[in-house]
Amino acid sequence: MHPLGLVLFAIIALGSWYWWQAQPLEQRRSASWKIFLLLVIIGLLFLAITGRMHWLGALIALTLPFLKKLLPLLLRFFPFLARWWQSQQQQKKQQGQSRRQQRKPNGNSRMSSAEALEVLGLKPGASREEIIRAHRQLIQKLHPDRQGSAWLAARVNDARDRLLHD
Question: Which of 19, 44, 62, 159 is deepest in the core (most CB within 10 A)?
Answer without folding.
Answer: 159
